[in-house]
Each structure stands twice: as structure tokens, then as C-alpha cells.
Amino acid sequence: MGQGDQDEDAPIAFAKRMGLSFQDDSLIRRAFTHRSYLNEHREVMEDNERLEFLGDAVLDFLVGAWLYNHFPEMAEGQLTRLRAALVGNQQLAEFARELHLGEVMLLGKGEVENRGMERSGLLGSTYEAVIGAIYLDQGMDGVKKFVAPMLEEAVGQVLMTRRDLDAKSSLQEWSQAEGLGTPNYKIIASSGPDHEKSFEIEVIIKGVVYGKGYGSSKQAAAKMAAQATLEMLGIG
Asked: Percent of the chain at pLDDT above 90?
């Protein structure tokens, strides 16, 4: 196939490769359908955004329950931080890469040319949509069977690299301990279409500009800016 040509049966092949027996094949096909593909193929009825919304909620619950059962002595605050790291887009994009989801995505020609199948934002969103599709077709047990093996390995990596620590919370603790008040996060630039925006944010503490961050959401950019500030200060 040439650039821009995509295999509409690839999602079905992916499901078989993963040992997922869908009663409704249209669900897994929809999970990989980006809105840009929908715009160019009027015969396709729906993109994956609603499945992405559902998958996000399902993952929040399942990962929270999994952590609760696997770490009975862990305090609520650390459980919350650990869950946030495991369901954050960075980790979900890594899951998607492990599963080669980018090769299965159905994207519009513009997204293909811009190598959308490699972008973390799209990869993480597609992973959530796949989770939503599995949930609708096979329930929470089906999702747990699919996700649990990946969680076992990922949680160890998160704890080892301390990715469960929230950079914004750590920076606020430092700033207040130094008597500098609460850090402010200011958007200094944004670009791209509404569905693929990117943001640049800087941290300001008591009138002084510290680190900058970039991301596909304001939250992601702010976290990166906080982390950059911690590293600048030698405490991150």
C-alpha cells in the first residue's frame, strides 16, 4: 500500500493477534478510527472519540482497583499519584507503542503525512478507545485480562523512576517552604487546530520566570514546566 492507503481490516487482525474475540467487530474498528479518517470517508459512521471518553473512565476505575488490591499498605496519597502516572498519556502512549497500535490506526491523509501514528497524543487516545471497545463488548473482566499484564511491568518502572511524584505538587511544596508563595503557570503560546493543539507554559514564582514546558494539553505543559523548574533548582 502507498502512503495514505490504510487497511480497514487491520483492527480486526489486531484483535485476533491479541486473542480478543469481539462479538461486534464494528467496535474494534471504530476504536482505531480517527476523526480525520471519518472526514474523508463519509461511509464511516463514527470516530473513536466517544470510546476514548469511556475507556478513560474504565481505566481510572480498573487501575485504581488493581493498585488497591496489589498495594494494601500504600497510603491514599501515593495510590492517587501512582494511578495518575499509570493512566497518564505518557504511559498510555507507551502501552500503545508496545502493542504497535500506530500501525493499525485509520487516519486521514493529512494525519498520515504528518506521521500522526507516531504522536503520543494520538497513541494514548487510541489506547483508551480500544479499552472502551473491549469494555462494551466483553465487560470489565475482558479489560482486566487485557490490561493487567501490562500494569505488572509498568508499575515497577513508574516506582523505580519515581514518575508517580507530581512535579507541580513538589514545586509548590518547595516554593511555599522558601516563603515564595504558590507558583503561577502562564500560557505564553498555543498553536495548531482545536483537535491537535500544543501549548507552551512558563512557571512564575514571585514575579520571576523559571522553567518552561510544552504539551498537547495545558496540564501536560504545566507539568513539564514544573519538572523543568525542579531540575533547574537541582531538586528534581
From this structure: 53
